[in-house]
Design a protein that fits this description.
It contains 13 helices and 12 strands. The chain has about 350 residues and is an alpha/beta fold. The longest helix is centred in the middle third of the chain and has 16 residues, at about 135-150. S-adenosyl-L-homocysteine binds near residues 123, 199, 200 and 222.
Amino acid sequence: MTVSRVDYGDVLSMTEEELSTLMTTLGAERFRGQQLFQGLWRQAIRNYRDLSVWPRKLQELMEREYPFKRLGVVRHETSADGTVKLLLALQDGQHVETVVLPHRYGYSVCVSSQVGCAMGCTFCASGLKGRVRQLTAGEMADQVLVANELLASQGQRVSRVDIMGIGEPLDNFDAVIRFIELIHHPRGLYISYRHITVSTSGLVPNIRRLAETGIPVTLAVSLHAPNDALRTRLMPINRAYPLTKLMSAVRDYTRRTRRRVTFEYLLLKDVNDREEHAKELGRLLQGLLAHVNLIPWNPVPEHPFRPSPAADVRRFQSIVQEYGISCTIRRELGQEIEAACGQLRLREEERVLR
Ligand code: SAH
Ligand code: SF4
């Protein structure tokens, strides 16, 4: 029998509704779609044969017409504090990184949204070789499934998802929204929107689009500099969307969603960590529904920066706090294995090329 393909990528990228429609186009009952959805998300099946409620014929038809392959774990590194960094292989042989982090409240997973990144920030390992390709919603969601499989042995599961791994999520907008809706589904992983964070380098039009969806995720903006001259030096995207435009989009986002925005600010010694920068940042954010997260920079050998000393980080924090802005310092989890996000993938590509 020939099958008219429904092209959403792979079955892991499809909503329950789409799977049900697919079943009817294949001549199967609609409820088989629900069964498949629950099999994929609740049982984390690795092939259709694992779906024991299905007739063999349907399993075989789907194997032929809609084969799917889950992500493979290529490397797996655990640090003393319990952070696990995974290098995962995609079907086409590309790699992404996923990090599982322990917290007091449970576990979070840091998910990649692209292979590489097109934004070219001058301190980051992920963008060193540009953007190779977009991830599908299913490839992002599979990272959460893999994290859950890892935690299952301890009777745990992921409760927060940060889209903060390799890639710029708002440069892969539709797939990211689809991913968020997939992992939020009550018959799937049922992760609360409020426990999902989207981190962006500041793609202004898509910050506005995100606000328009009305999905109450947390927005994190990678700021890293309090003025345009410095920010453009660190983040080329600032040329297209300078601070006035970025701050106006963020202000509208907070008004519309009533959600506090997180500003990430990584500290580079003598570049953006001086007292005057802290004051300028305080003035920039004053009166905004904002939280500042100071990030110690993970050295990337290809980039010439140095991390700020801990004392300077604390001084920066207290100056920002004097402006009435809540400001924390990110815990350095998994430092000895982590290096910067994007580095595992980079080293793997170099190893393969050698
Ligand atoms: N592209 C998105 C999300 C992925 S990067 C963004 O830029 O927000 C996630 C965070 O890690 C960003 O705040 C980014 O600036 C930061 N980051 C990148 N390289 C880093 C490094 N070497 N050390 C510490 N943080 C880094
Ligand atoms: Fe891309 Fe984010 Fe790295 Fe910038 S910091 S290059 S936007 S992944």
